[in-house]
Every structure is written in C-alpha cells, then in structure tokens.
Amino acid sequence: MILLQKQDYYKVTEHLQQIAVNHLFARFIIEQKVDGKVFVDNPENPTSFYILHPYSMSLLFGNVDNKEFNKNLVDYLLNTNKQRQRYEWLQAPETKWQAFLSETFGDRFIAVEENRGAVNDKIEITTRVNFKFNKAKFDAISAMTPIDKQVVRTETAHYDAIHGAVIPENFWNTSDDFFQNGVGFTSLSDNEVASTAFSSFIFDDTLEIGIETTQPYKGKGYAFAACSALINYCIENNYEPIWSCKKDNIGSYRLACRLGFEPTLTLPFYRLNY
Predict the structure, then answer these.
(1) pLDDT tens, 95-132?
(2) How do 184-189 and 192-203 pair as beta strands?
(3) In order of start, what are the domains of the chain with their CATH numbers?
(4) How many angstroms separate the CA atoms of 150 and 261, rounded?
(5) What is the pLDDT of residues 178-220, one digit of tens each?
(6) Within the chain, where are the H helices?
C-alpha cells in the first residue's frame, strides 16, 4: 500500500466509476473536496485501491492479486503497526475482495451484537444498506404527516451547536467550505438545536443526507422534519437525495423508510478495531 499523491488522484477516477454501490465519500476525496488518503499498489499505474475518509470510512476495490499490496493491507487491517487510533468502517463491494477478507480473517469475524464494541483482535461485521429515493412515496407520506416543528436553514450558530458523530464538520474541511458548497436544515426546540440534516456529500445531481439528532429529541419527529426540509430542497434544486446506513442502525433505517427511501442493495460492512 503506497500513499498516492493528490496530483495523481485522477488515476483512480475511471476505476472508481466501476463501483456500483454508493461511494460518494470516496469520490469526495478523489475530487479533493475533502482531505483523505488514497493507497495504491503502484503510483504510476494503480490497479488496487484503498481510500480512507477522515470520518474513518474506507473503500477497498480493484485488483485482488497483488501480493505486496495484500501483505501491507493485511498488516493495516490488523493494525500491526498501530497506525489506526480509532475504529474504521470498511466497505469492500466487490465479491473478490469479500472472498479475500473471508479467507484471510474469517476466524476473526464476529457479529457486532456479539462483540458490543469491545477493543480486541476481532473484526466486527454487519450490513450496510443503500437506499433509493421514491418521490411518490415521500409525497404521499408528507401529505399525511404535517410538520409541526420549527425548521430553518442551518447557519453558523447552528453549525457550532451541533454535537455528535454525523455532523458537518466531520464531512467538510471547514465551516466556510460547508456553507459555500453544502447545505443543511436544522429543526429547533425553543431555539435550541434539536436535529440537523445536511449534505454530507454533494455531486452533480446527487446529494447524500447526513443527520444528527441531540439525544433528548430523538424519536420526537425533529429528524423527520429536518430531513423533509432537505429533501424538499433536493427536489426543488434537481438533486437526487441519497441515503445509506447500517442495517442495525434501527433509527436511521426506519427514518429512511419513513422519508420515502427504499432499500435496494446490501453489502458487508467491517468495523476495524485499533
């Protein structure tokens, strides 16, 4: 695994376009909209790829037969050299890489619910779900579910008040970058930030939704209100809203379905320990 220099990221584009699953987070790095890392087998003519997003999401794809790349990959995944200081979530959408991971680490795989976040030599495995937006379904649900929450366009004060994991600062280089190139909507309770839906990635005519809700306001409709506002923004501006989440993230999964999204694809999702 050799770190690819940013000026050579263009060499990844054609290969990345062949990946069928939602990979906007990787594309964000390749197009240098957010700082990440790209590891390859050969900087001159790369065929094996490992893309790491600063939110600790990674994508493995390409040629599976490069022994030197694979050796370094195994060391990295096992954190042999202690490069990784926190959890990382890995996607390997191609069946050839899934087979490689199973053959190499099968005895280390453990279901998320069995490991319960313990830091050990296990690789937790769960399922990631990609959704497809159904506008007719969203319209029908919206007609039956009036919004009774105050929702405003996300501004600097809201940005600074958002706490949690899925928040804009974990997906954009700076707040200025977010406000210039992204968008968000925040639902409020007595002027306090309850939930914020925002563009975690935005390209061409697609916008992937990120959502974070403050603990006291979960399950009370604030996330639905914020997401509905962002989806309406997408519709008005000709963006296709995108949603992906872990299958065992019940709150996110159910919210996606309530908003008119339909599950279309699943793939293994590996949590790497540190």
Answers:
(1) 999 999 999 998 999 987 887 777 778 899 999 999 99
(2) antiparallel
(3) 2-128 (3.40.630.110), 134-242 (3.40.630.30)
(4) 23
(5) 999 999 999 999 999 999 999 999 999 999 999 999 999 999 9
(6) 10-16, 24-30, 67-77, 95-105, 112-115, 135-144, 156-161, 175-181, 222-236, 250-258
